[in-house]
Amino acid sequence: MRKKIHVPQHLAKIITYIALILLAMAVVVPVAWSFMAAFKQNHEFYGNPWILPEKLYFQNFVSAWEEARMGEFMLNSVITTVLGLLMLLITALPAAYVLSRFNFKVKKILRALFMGGLFININYIVVPIFLMFADADKWLKSVGLKSFFLNNIFVLAVVYASTALPFTIYLLSSYFITIPKAYEEAAYIDGAGYVKTMIKVIFPMAKPSIITVILFNFLWFWNEYIIAITLLTDPKGAKTLPVGLMNLMKAQNAAAQYGRMYAGLVLVMVPTLVFYICVQKKLTQSLNIGGLKG
Question: Is the Cytoplasm keyword given for this protein (predicted)?
Fold first, then answer.
């Protein structure tokens, strides 16, 4: 028989702490370096990359915001993300509630379809989506109307919301199932209908899972690149922040304006960091509650 190797408890803790510190450094150091590089002047990039900036050169942010249109791109990303989240929640919350609490004839079929959507990678179907939108725009132009489906941030938000539905409904319905039905029965006795019970009773109790869904989808919508660059084809038209940042990186690499490039990168990172800091406590609570109920 093989002897089991016994690792002392204090040694296991040391190894764990070292691994966590290395993992934290792998995440924090690149982010900190990007923030530091965003305040450097161009000639400072040709020396030691770890030297602090000579002074805080805010002109990089001004140039990225105004000359590189990063302000316009950020507004487009805010509109797209907010619209996508609103449409997603308005659709997914009632759908998840119905699938988790009621029995009807096509329930199994609908659940199977939504579960099947979890295994579809959006990157594999973005080209068919583009072709369908392109054909629809050609038809609109043939009848004397303007194109609508391509280069439209509202349509982009619809695509984001629809592709996020399977995961969102799966996560929400799994949480709704854990809520005792006694709360709904008490609401029915007090005269509340299905809709009022759903909004006033179930949704407040499911707040941790809703916050988790909002955070995950916010991060995906905000940082998404492939769908945006495929559906926003006009070089002078609307662009989201990741697409604008990629164009800025290409332009600044050619022009050797690295400070402006990193300033654009910081503009992309800051909203996600601020949003995560604001909700990280609620997110941790939701994960702990989900673990206890699971």
Answer: no
Q: To the nearest whole number, what is the mean pLDDT of the chain?
A: 83
**CB-based burial label for 69 (10 Å; 0-12, 13-18, 19+):** middle
Q: What whole-number distance in Å separates Cα of residue 62 and Cα of residue 166?
A: 40
Which residue matches tokens 């509340």? 192
Structural domains present in the chain? 68-293 (1.10.3720.10)
Q: What is the pLDDT of residue 291?
A: 43
What is residue 232's three-state secondary structure? coil
Q: Which two three-digit tokens encode residue 115?
A: 């579960």
172-208 exposure pattern, b = at least 16 Cβ within 10 A, e = fewer: bbebbeebeeeebeebeeeebeeeebbeebbbeebeb
Return the closest-CA partner of residue 240 out of 222, 255, 253: 222
What is the average per-residue pLDDT within 203-208? Answer: 87
Query: Token pair of 46, please?
Result: 């040709």
* Contacts of 231 by beta carbon, 8 Å cutoff, 6+ apart: 126, 129, 130, 133, 149, 150, 151, 152, 155, 156, 159
